[in-house]
C-alpha cells in the first residue's frame, strides 16, 4: 500500500514538473511574441516619425512656396495696376490728341481688326484720305481683337488714330457642332469695342467699319447728313453705307437713298440710345443676322444708299470668301462728291417715306407671266413684278442676278417686301411682295 502511495506521489511530481516546464515554455513563447510585436511597433513608430518629419518638411517647403507665390502675385497685381494706370493715361492722352474738345464729334469711327495687317493698312489709308480734313468731327480708332504683333504695329504707326486692344482669354463654347469659333470671337469683340466707345469715351454715335473696306469721297458728309435723321426719327435704327444689290449693273443714282427693313451692315452708324438697348442682350455669335430678327429691330428701319459708300475688298477672312466673286467684287463704290448738306432728306422720315416710295412704285408698269424678266428687259421706264412667296422671289431674283437671300421672312434690301434695283439702264425694277401694295396703300393693285 505504501508502495502504491509512493508511486502516486512520483507521478504527481513528474506531472508537476512537466506542467512547470510547459508553463515556462508558453511564457517564453509569449514573451518572444510580445518582444517581436514590440520591436515591430517600435519600428513602425520610428517609420511614422520619419514620415511625419518628411511631411512636415514638405509642408514647410510648400508653405514657403505659397508665401513666395503670394508675394509674386502681389507684385504682379501691383505691376498690372500700374500698367493699367499707364495705359489709361496714354489712352486719355491719345483721345485728347484725336478729339478736338472744342468740336462736338459727329461720330467716332472704329475699324474692327484682328490679324490682317495688309488689309488694315489699305483701309486706314482710304479713310485718312477723306477723314483728315474732318478729323475733329470723326475721331478715328482701330480696335484689335487679339495680339497679332503686325496689326498692333501697323495701327500704332499712325499718329492720326487711337489704338485700342481687346484681349479675351475665355474659351469659346459653340452652340452647335461644326460652327466657326471666329464668329463667336467677332461678336465678343464688337460688344467690347462699342461698350468702350459709348460708355468709356462717351461718344453719342459710332460708325463701325471693318479692316477690309475702302470709303467713298462723300462718306463723311453722307453720315453727317444722316446723323440728323437718326436723332430726329427714332423709327430709324441705324444708317448704313452699303447696298447688298449695289453691283455696277444694278445702280445708277448716287443721290438716291432708301429705307429698308433689312439691316445692311458693312459700314454703319448707330446711336448710344440704340446701343443702350442692344448691349445687355448682345448675342454670342452671328451679331448681324441677330440684328435682322424682328424681335431685335422691332419694326425700326435702316437708311441705305443706292450706290455704296463703302467697298469690301476682303476676299480672305472669317466668311472664307463667301459670295465675294459674285456679289462683293462687282460692287460700285461711289466716286461722286455729293453735297449732302444741300440735300433735303425729309422724304426719308417715317411720316413721309411710305407715300414717297408708294408714288414711285405706283408709276412702275406691272409685268406678269413666266417671261416677266424678258418683258422687263424690253420695256422702257420703271417696271414692277409681283412675286408670290419666297421660292418665287428666289427664282425671279436668280433670273436677274441679285441677292436671293432672306432673313427672318425679309429679302435683302427690301422695304415692305419690295426690292428695288436698276437693270442695266436708269430704269428701276421693283420686285413686289404679295402684301406689299396693300402696305404701301396702293389701291389700284
Automatic annotation (TrEMBL):
* Cofactor binding: number and manner: The cofactor is mostly bound to the substrate.
Q: What is the lineage of its organism?
A: Eukaryota, Viridiplantae, Streptophyta, Embryophyta, Tracheophyta
Q: Which reaction does it catalyse?
A: N(4)-(alpha-D-Man-(1->3)-[alpha-D-Man-(1->3)-[alpha-D-Man-(1->6)]-alpha-D-Man-(1->6)]-beta-D-Man-(1->4)-beta-D-GlcNAc-(1->4)-beta-D-GlcNAc)-L-asparaginyl-[protein] (N-glucan mannose isomer 5A1,2) + UDP-N-acetyl-alpha-D-glucosamine = N(4)-{beta-D-GlcNAc-(1->2)-alpha-D-Man-(1->3)-[alpha-D-Man-(1->3)-[alpha-D-Man-(1->6)]-alpha-D-Man-(1->6)]-beta-D-Man-(1->4)-beta-D-GlcNAc-(1->4)-beta-D-GlcNAc}-L-asparaginyl-[protein] + UDP + H(+)
Taken from the UniProt entry, a GO cellular component term is:
Golgi membrane
Q: What is its EC number?
A: 2.4.1.101
Signal peptide: which range, if any? none
**In which domain of life is the source organism classified?**
Eukaryota
Q: Could you tell me what this protein does?
A: Initiates complex N-linked carbohydrate formation. Essential for the conversion of high-mannose to hybrid and complex N-glycans.
Q: Which cofactor does it need?
A: Mn(2+)
Q: How does it sit in the membrane?
A: Single-pass type II membrane protein
Q: Which UniProt keywords apply?
A: Coiled coil, Glycosyltransferase, Golgi apparatus, Manganese, Membrane, Metal-binding, Signal-anchor, Transferase, Transmembrane, Transmembrane helix
Q: What is its main location?
A: Golgi
The family database entries (PANTHER family) matched by this protein are listed as: ALPHA-1,3-MANNOSYL-GLYCOPROTEIN 2-BETA-N-ACETYLGLUCOSAMINYLTRANSFERASE (PTHR10468:SF0), PROTEIN O-LINKED-MANNOSE BETA-1,2-N-ACETYLGLUCOSAMINYLTRANSFERASE 1/ALPHA-1,3-MANNOSYL-GLYCOPROTEIN 2-BETA-N-ACETYLGLUCOSAMINYLTRANSFERASE (PTHR10468)
Q: In which pathway does it act?
A: Protein modification; protein glycosylation
Name of the protein described by the UniProt record:
Alpha-1,3-mannosyl-glycoprotein 2-beta-N-acetylglucosaminyltransferase
Annotated localization? Golgi apparatus membrane
Recorded coiled-coil stretches: 66-93
Write down the CDD domains for this protein, in alphabetical order: GT13_GLCNAC-TI
The species this protein belongs to is: Populus alba x Populus x berolinensis
Molecular-function GO terms, alphabetical: alpha-1,3-mannosylglycoprotein 2-beta-N-acetylglucosaminyltransferase activity; manganese ion binding
Amino acid at each position: 500500500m505504501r508502495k502504491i502511495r509512493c508511486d502516486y506521489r512520483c507521478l504527481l511530481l513528474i506531472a508537476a514538473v512537466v506542467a512547470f516546464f510547459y508553463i515556462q515554455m508558453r511564457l517564453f513563447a509569449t514573451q518572444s511574441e510580445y518582444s517581436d510585436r514590440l520591436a515591430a511597433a517600435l519600428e513602425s513608430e520610428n517609420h511614422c516619425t520619419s514620415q511625419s518629419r518628411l511631411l512636415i518638411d514638405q509642408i514647410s517647403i510648400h508653405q514657403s512656396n505659397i508665401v513666395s507665390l503670394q508675394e509674386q502675385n502681389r507684385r504682379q497685381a501691383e505691376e498690372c495696376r500700374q500698367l493699367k494706370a499707364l495705359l489709361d493715361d496714354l489712352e486719355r492722352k491719345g483721345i485728347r490728341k484725336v478729339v478736338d474738345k472744342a468740336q462736338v464729334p459727329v461720330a467716332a469711327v472704329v475699324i474692327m481688326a484682328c490679324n490682317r495687317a495688309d488689309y488694315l493698312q489699305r483701309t486706314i489709308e482710304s479713310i485718312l484720305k477723306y477723314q483728315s480734313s474732318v478729323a475733329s468731327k470723326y475721331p478715328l480708332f482701330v480696335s484689335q481683337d487679339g495680339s497679332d504683333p503686325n496689326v498692333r504695329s501697323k495701327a500704332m504707326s499712325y499718329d492720326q488714330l487711337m489704338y485700342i486692344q481687346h484681349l479675351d482669354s475665355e474659351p469659346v463654347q459653340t452652340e452647335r457642332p461644326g460652327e466657326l469659333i471666329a464668329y463667336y470671337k467677332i461678336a465678343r469683340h464688337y460688344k467690347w469695342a462699342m461698350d468702350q466707345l459709348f460708355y468709356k469715351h462717351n461718344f453719342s454715335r459710332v460708325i463701325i467699319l471693318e479692316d477690309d473696306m475702302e470709303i467713298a469721297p462723300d462718306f463723311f458728309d453722307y453720315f453727317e447728313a444722316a446723323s440728323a435723321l437718326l436723332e430726329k426719327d427714332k423709327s430709324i435704327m441705324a444708317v448704313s453705307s452699303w447696298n447688298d444689290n449695289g453691283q455696277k449693273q444694278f445702280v445708277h443714282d448716287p443721290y438716291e437713298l432708301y429705307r429698308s427693313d433689312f439691316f445692311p451692315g458693312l459700314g454703319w452708324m448707330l446711336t448710344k440710345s440704340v446701343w443702350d438697348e442692344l448691349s445687355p442682350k448682345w448675342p454670342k455669335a452671328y451679331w448681324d443676322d441677330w440684328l435682322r430678327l424682328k424681335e431685335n429691330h422691332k419694326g425700326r428701319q435702316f437708311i441705305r444708299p443706292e450706290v455704296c459708300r463703302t467697298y469690301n475688298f476682303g476676299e480672305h477672312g472669317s466668311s472664307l470668301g463667301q459670295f465675294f466673286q459674285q456679289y462683293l467684287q462687282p460692287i460700285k463704290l461711289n466716286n461722286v462728291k455729293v453735297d449732302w448738306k444741300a440735300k433735303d432728306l425729309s422724304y426719308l422720315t417715317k411720316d413721309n417715306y411710305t407715300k414717297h416710295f408708294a408714288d414711285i412704285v405706283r408709276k412702275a408698269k406691272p409685268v406678269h407671266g413666266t417671261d416677266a424678266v424678258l418683258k422687263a428687259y424690253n420695256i422702257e421706264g420703271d417696271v414692277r413684278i409681283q412675286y408670290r412667296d419666297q421660292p418665287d422671289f428666289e427664282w425671279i431674283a436668280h433670273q436677274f442676278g441679285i441677292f436671293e437671300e432672306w432673313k427672318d421672312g425679309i429679302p435683302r434690301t427690301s422695304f415692305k417686301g419690295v426690292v428695288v434695283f436698276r437693270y442695266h439702264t436708269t430704269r428701276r425694277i421693283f420686285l413686289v411682295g404679295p402684301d406689299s401694295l396693300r402696305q404701301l396703300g396702293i389701291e389700284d393693285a
